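just leaving the lab so this will be short. what follows is a protein written twice so to speak, once as letters and once as structure tokens for the fold. can you read through it and tell me how you think this chain folds. anything you notice is useful, everything is just below:
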Amino acid sequence: MLVREPSQRASLADIMQHPWMKDEVGAVSKLVLTPLVCRQTLTDDDHWHIVQRIVDGKIASKEDVIQYVTAYISALCISFFYSSCTTFLM
């Protein structure tokens, strides 16, 4: 999936067959079928489950995930603060 050349990327069908996308009995995990964007707030357990799947899939370490999410949230806060100030001053 993370290949720069689009023609060399895995297809959606290939991705759905990957063991990381399956549950313990080999069926597509219900978590995979959950939309990436939803209005439901995830519990702390849900968040840690997602982090664990990232670690288990050897995508990143737990520390790297926490560092990235922290930096991303900080950037969002700065961006929101800047746009709020800009709107207020205009």
Observations:
- The chain has a mean pLDDT of 76.
- The helical segments are 12-17, 44-56, 62-89.
- Residues 6-89 form one domain.
